[in-house]
């Protein structure tokens, strides 16, 4: 683990990912303070890891995160040709939950807008109108707002990751909010004391506010997924959405397919509605060819076929 933590591969990870791995490594070291490489490659190691993994069954997400971190160490060892196999391979995850339905519904959006504290409501409106990641929005300054567009440097919070600059047109509703705010602070988003948010501070305050309002099952991150879903539902293409959110086209597709649109009844209904419209048009054309009755009669004919 020490070799992986000190490697360029680890340094290239997002800070939040590094923190998650370090927390996992602390628990892993409690179980295996010293673990010879030779032992990790022997028969029975997978069974030992599976048994350890299942001791955290009461907290499946935490258990799976620790398993992922341990697996990542072994993967690094294979890449560096230190070991030949990953004993974590094939161990089933404990968490079976899904985020397929975890989008902000119109009812939840209305509730948050009606009752949330102003400094958190601003963060909400920024997310739902721009589709940007939390980390990039918390770093946004007033210099990035020219009145018509917001300029984001996506990935700025992730050392070692390539940065991508995008200009997002400010929605009229968001523009009205921003135009009414004082610009005497460096950052656009600030806490209740007018100071820039820390990541942990924002996460804590956001969680407390959702608890106060009785909002469950959705996170701040889900606002980006809601943005992606709603824009696609409106007719924006995957390529157009990717140009704003900073995802690759494939990533937007995966978000839509696996996490949000899989249970979107409105979207699936639209497929059948379009099919019905196409069918009616085709039948109408056939009717017009067969008879020269008035158009209203033609449509009646088409519907009755």
Report on this model:
With 305 residues, the chain is mainly alpha-helical. The chain folds into 3 domains: 2-79; 106-263, hpI Integrase, Chain A; 273-304. Helix content is 59%, strand content 4%. The chain has a two-stranded antiparallel ribbon with strand order 1-2. Helix 8 (118-130) packs across helix 12 and helix 15 packs across helix 16 (295-304). The protein is globular and about 75 Å long.
Number of domains: 3
The parts where pLDDT drops under 50 for at least 5 residues are: 298-305
Write down the CATH class of the largest domain: Mainly Alpha
Beta fraction: under 5%
Mean pLDDT: 84
The termini sit apart by 70 Å
Overall 3D shape: globular
Largest sheet: 2 strands, antiparallel
Query: Which CATH-level-2 architecture of the largest domain?
Result: Orthogonal Bundle
Query: Total number of β-strand segments?
Result: 2
**Residue share in helices?**
55-70%
Count every helix, treating DSSP H or I runs of 4 or more residues as helices.
16
Class from helix and strand fractions: mainly alpha
Order of helices and strands: HHHHHHHHHEEHHHHHHH
CATH superfamily of the largest domain, called what?
A: Intergrase catalytic core
Strands in their spatial order, largest beta sheet: 1-2
What is the CA-based Rg, rounded? 26 Å
């Amino acid at each position: 683990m020490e070799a992986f933590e000190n490697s360029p591969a680890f340094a290239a990870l997002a800070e939040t990912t590094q923190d998650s791995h370090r927390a996992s490594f602390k628990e892993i070291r409690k179980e295996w303070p010293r673990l010879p490489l030779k032992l990790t490659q022997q028969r029975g190691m997978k069974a030992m890891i599976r048994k350890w993994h299942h001791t955290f069954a009461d907290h499946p997400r935490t258990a799976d995160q620790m398993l992922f971190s341990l697996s990542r160490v072994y993967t690094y060892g294979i890449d560096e040709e230190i070991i030949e196999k990953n004993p974590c391979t094939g161990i089933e995850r404990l968490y079976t939950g899904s985020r397929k339905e975890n989008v902000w519904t119109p009812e939840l959006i209305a509730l948050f807008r009606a009752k949330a504290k102003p400094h958190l409501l601003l963060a909400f409106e920024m997310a739902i109108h721009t589709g940007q990641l939390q980390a990039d929005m918390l770093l946004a300054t007033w210099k990035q707002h020219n009145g018509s567009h917001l300029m984001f440097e996506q990935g700025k919070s992730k050392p070692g990751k390539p940065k991508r600059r995008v200009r997002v047109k400010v929605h009229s509703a968001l523009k009205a909010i921003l135009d009414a705010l004082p610009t005497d602070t460096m950052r656009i988003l600030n806490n209740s004391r007018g100071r820039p948010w820390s990541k942990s501070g924002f996460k804590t305050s956001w969680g407390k506010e959702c608890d106060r309002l009785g909002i469950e099952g959705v996170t701040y991150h889900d606002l980006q997924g809601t943005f992606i879903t709603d824009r696609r539902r409106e007719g924006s293409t995957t390529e157009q959405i990717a140009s704003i959110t900073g995802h690759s086209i494939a990533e937007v597709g995966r978000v839509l397919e696996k996490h949000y649109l899989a249970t979107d009844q409105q979207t699936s209904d639209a497929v059948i509605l379009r099919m019905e419209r196409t069918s009616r048009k085709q039948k109408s054309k056939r009717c017009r060819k067969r008879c020269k009755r008035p158009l209203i009669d033609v449509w009646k004919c088409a519907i009755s076929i």
